[in-house]
Amino acid sequence: MSPELLPGIDRVLFTEEQIESRIRELAAEISRDYQGKALKLVGVLKGSIFFMTALARHIEVPLTIDFLGISSFSNKSGAPGVVRIAKDLDESIEGENVLLVEDIVDTGFTLRYLLQTLAGRAPNSLSVCTFLDRNSRRIVQVPVHYRGFEIPDRFVVGFGLDYNQLYRNLGFVATMKK
Ligand code: IMP
Ligand code: MG
Question: What ligand 1 atom has the least distance to the C-alpha of 154?
Fold first, then answer.
């Protein structure tokens, strides 16, 4: 889909080629770090699916995949940060080397909740790989071990990221018009 034909799309931040090339670099780094270990990729539905499948195809250590789904709410004062698991993992992660795969880390509330929850299940190791990182909006500090791209303080769509559930299937990442 060409960005010019899409209402609401402002400009392309990362092209399909740039994304593919960055994913190959991340996959090479992950393959080195997990050499000789079994890896489990845990994807957060739905945003991380596109990134996770692309990443997984370039990782060269044996791996398994699992998914969890979350809902986030604002509290009464309108502040973000209330997260719960809406669809849990299918399998136990006890003793496993878990790499949590996110689409974007923004305030950090989602990731903090997920890390606390997963850490309580006794994995052998627990690390984070996010496609996009908007560090300028971070409210709670969370560890990010692998990141695809740092992005400016603009709402973005594409490659898994949505606006009202649309645009996830774009091969590129673009900012939305204000
Ligand atoms: P956090 O808890 O504020 O870090 O929220 C992260 C979640 O908010 C992500 O997993 C996305 O689902 C959503 N999100 C944050 N920024 C964007 C964006 O620019 N486009 C689409 N979704 C976003
Ligand atoms: Mg998400």
Answer: 19
User: CA-to-CA distance for 80 and 66, rounded, in angstroms?
Assistant: 26
What are the pLDDT tens digits along the chain (178 aa)?
777 778 899 999 999 999 999 999 999 999 999 999 999 999 999 999 999 999 999 999 999 999 999 998 766 665 666 899 999 999 999 999 999 999 999 999 999 999 999 999 999 999 999 999 999 999 999 999 999 999 999 999 999 999 999 999 999 999 999 8
Distance separating alpha carbons of residues 37 and 124, to the nearest angstrom:
11
How far apart are alpha carbons 99 and 36 in whole angstroms?
Answer: 15
Residue 14 in tokens: 């990362």
The residue whose CA is least distant from atom 22 of ligand 1 is 161
- List the one residue out of 88, 90, 50, 92 whose CA is nearest residue 71: 88
Structure tokens at 132: 């996009």
* Residue whose C-alpha is closest to residue 36's, from 122, 97, 93: 97
Q: If DSSP codes are grouped into helix, strand and coil, which group holds residue 166? A: strand
Distance of alpha carbon 165 from the chain centroid: 16
Atom of ligand 1 nearest to the CA of 83: 2
Residue for token digits 């489990």?
Answer: 40
148: CA distance to ligand 2 center in Å? 15
Cβ(104) – ligand 1 distance below 6 Å: yes
